């Protein structure tokens, strides 16, 4: 007796479960003559009759019934093998380095990282929380989230959205110093400085908020430290609505004032964009950032 071919066993199993050659052929995507030949070949290999014709249908013989359970076991094993092989082929592993500001890294990205953990549990994510612009060209990071568009032709950039910010302060500060009712009122308040003070002062002037260095008695190069100082009642600062609005003890100032808008750019190296793990993370971040 020859060792049976799996294709022939699969043809027998489909025919037995559907009750006819035509239905079995449709299930497997074969022509009926092809399926019939495969069933006949299995009968020849085993030296037994597996089906009897009853009118236009087929009925299993006793030998066919005996073989059916074994065939189902083999089918289940084959399906499990196929799924395992597919999982291995699609497994995404390795390290992806994402650079973003420290505030975004701490307050915005965690839900996206949870999604990545579920989608690719074997992937390692290295979050480079930095407020300077990391150089993707030197592979200091694989993916960057930035508020300015890089201009190097070797980089792929996607504008995922225009985000919003407003001015915020702690209730404890406002109860002590009063709640500003206009941009002019803001000019008499304390601000928590972050990054370049001259640029901050220039940025706020067109909004009607006229500040000097005297308004910034507390400052830090760290966005996280600056935001914590705001929460502790040291003064006012602009912050992303996605970060500030859910923060207990923080109030949005001048709700009638137009929001500050700024772009969120997602950037990666053109060569790295062909990597499956980079593409997965890039696409997931793009979708996530579109909805924050």
From TrEMBL:
SUPFAM superfamilies: Periplasmic binding protein-like II, Winged helix' DNA-binding domain. One of its GO terms (molecular function) is sequence-specific DNA binding. PROSITE patterns: HTH_LYSR. Keywords: DNA-binding, Transcription, Transcription regulation. The keyword Phosphoprotein does not apply. It comes from the Bacteria. Residues 4-61 form the HTH lysR-type domain. This is Transcriptional regulator, lysR family. The lineage of its organism: Bacteria, Pseudomonadati, Pseudomonadota, Alphaproteobacteria, Rhodobacterales.
């Amino acid at each position: 007796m020859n060792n049976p071919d799996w294709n022939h066993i699969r043809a027998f199993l489909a025919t037995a479960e559907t009750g006819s050659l035509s239905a079995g052929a449709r299930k497997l995507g074969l022509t009926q003559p092809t399926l019939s030949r495969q069933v006949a070949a299995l009968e020849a290999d085993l030296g037994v009759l597996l089906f009897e014709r009853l009118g236009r249908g087929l009925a299993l013989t006793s030998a066919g019934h005996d073989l059916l359970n074994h065939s189902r076991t083999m089918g289940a094993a084959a399906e499990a093998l196929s799924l395992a092989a597919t999982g291995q082929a699609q497994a995404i592993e390795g390290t992806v380095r994402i650079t973003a500001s420290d505030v975004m890294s701490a307050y915005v990205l965690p839900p996206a990282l949870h999604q990545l953990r579920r989608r690719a549990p074997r992937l390692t994510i290295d979050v480079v929380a930095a407020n300077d612009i990391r150089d993707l060209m030197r592979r200091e990071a694989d993916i960057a989230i930035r508020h300015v568009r890089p201009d190097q032709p070797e980089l792929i950039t996607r504008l995922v959205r225009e985000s919003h910010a407003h001015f915020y302060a702690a209730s404890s500060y406002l109860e002590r110093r009063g709640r500003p009712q206009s941009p002019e009122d803001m000019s008499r308040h304390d601000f928590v400085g972050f990054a370049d003070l001259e640029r901050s002062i220039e940025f706020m002037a067109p909004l009607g908020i006229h500040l000097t260095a005297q308004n910034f008695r507390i400052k830090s190069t760290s966005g996280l430290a600056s935001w914590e100082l705001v929460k502790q009642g040291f003064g006012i600062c602009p912050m992303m609505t996605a970060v500030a609005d859910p923060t207990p003890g923080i109030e949005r100032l001048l709700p009638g004032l137009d929001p500050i808008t700024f772009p969120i750019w997602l950037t990666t190296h053109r060569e790295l964009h062909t990597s499956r793990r980079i593409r997965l993370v890039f696409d997931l971040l793009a979708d996530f950032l579109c909805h924050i």
